[in-house]
Design a protein that fits this description.
The complex is a heterodimer of chains A (131) and B (137).
Chain A lengths: L11 E2 L12 E3 L1 E6 L3 E7 L8 E6 L2 E6 L10 E4 L6 E7 L10 E5 L2 E7 L13
Parallel strand pairs in A: 2-8
Antiparallel strand pairs in A: 1-2, 3-4, 4-10, 5-6, 6-8, 9-10
Chain B lengths: L3 H14 L19 E6 L2 E7 L8 E6 L2 E8 L8 E5 L4 E8 L10 E5 L2 E6 L14
Classes of the chains: A mainly beta (131), B mainly beta (137).
């Protein structure tokens, strides 16, 4: 098997702090996070989630992303063979930078959500000259 | 009363219960390979649903012959230059899987839809494969 061959990434289930009244499963989207001087970017894989069903919030320094799966299209279909389960997605990250909340941008393409969070002015590194 | 969360839970249970199904085990190459496949029955026909988040439509190649469907392509993951990467979980690479269904299908009439990183293949059962009612004389 060549190292370039894609492997299946087993879906990870979200560990809930409280039990839900209905025990439907929620999954943790696979994520990449990278940072530039100007912004912090989080990329999340949420296959099956339409861009209209995504909620992004930053509260008390915690970024929370939720994606709701529209599973109505599965109506009337009987599974005969399955390799994965489906469900809503949710993941949170505590942010180490101050974020300019008004300027958070997000884009969805092929089931991948990219959230760009510009850092607040004062969080940007400052060059200090030695006098 | 219809409750969407109940409905999701029922669907999740149904998917779970078919996880060790023997239905395709011997015929589908790379079982457990990428991309993961779910197969559903919808009336006479089959629907195969594959999760391919991050794969561009133009990088997807689907072919069908007899009762075998091949799904090949590549997934690219890129970062802008001059970034520090804090977390790297997404994988990139190539894939090539075939799905062989245990019935005669109409390969010419397979329809593919790709949306939000999910590929749905609508696979019609061949007319010749459908059961016929036999009149008793």
């Amino acid at each position: 098997m060549s190292p370039q061959e894609l492997q299946v990434q087993e879906k990870r289930e979200l560990e809930k702090k409280q039990e839900a009244t209905v025990p439907a499963r929620t999954f943790v989207p696979t994520a990449d996070i990278f940072e530039t001087e100007a912004a912090l970017t989080v990329v999340l894989e949420m296959p099956g989630v339409d861009k209209g069903n995504v909620d992004i919030s930053v509260e008390d320094g915690v970024l929370t992303v939720q994606g709701r799966l529209d599973f109505s299209k599965y109506e009337g279909m009987q599974p005969v063979y399955t390799e994965y389960n489906i469900g809503h997605y949710r993941r949170s990250f505590s942010l180490s930078n101050k974020i300019n909340q008004d300027k958070i941008g997000a884009e969805m393409k092929d089931g991948v959500l990219t959230v760009v969070m510009p850092k607040a002015e004062k969080a940007k590194p400052r060059r200090i000259s030695v006098g | 009363m219809y409750h969407p969360l109940d409905a999701l839970f029922q669907l999740q249970r149904a998917l779970e219960s078919r996880l060790d199904s023997e239905w395709l085990r011997d015929t589908t190459t790379g079982s457990g390979g990428f991309p993961p496949i779910n197969v559903f029955q919808q009336g006479d026909n089959l629907v195969a649903i594959l999760e391919l988040a991050g794969v561009s439509r133009s990088d997807l190649d689907i072919q069908a012959k007899d009762n075998t469907i091949r799904i090949a392509g590549k997934k690219a993951v890129s970062y802008p230059e001059n970034v520090s990467v804090h977390r790297r979980e997404r994988l990139s690479g190539t894939f090539d899987r075939t799905l062989t269904v245990p019935m005669q299908i109409d390969a010419d009439r397979i329809k593919a839809e790709y949306r939000d990183g999910v590929l749905a293949l609508f696979i019609p059962r061949a007319e010749s494969d459908k059961p016929r009612s036999i009149a008793i004389n």
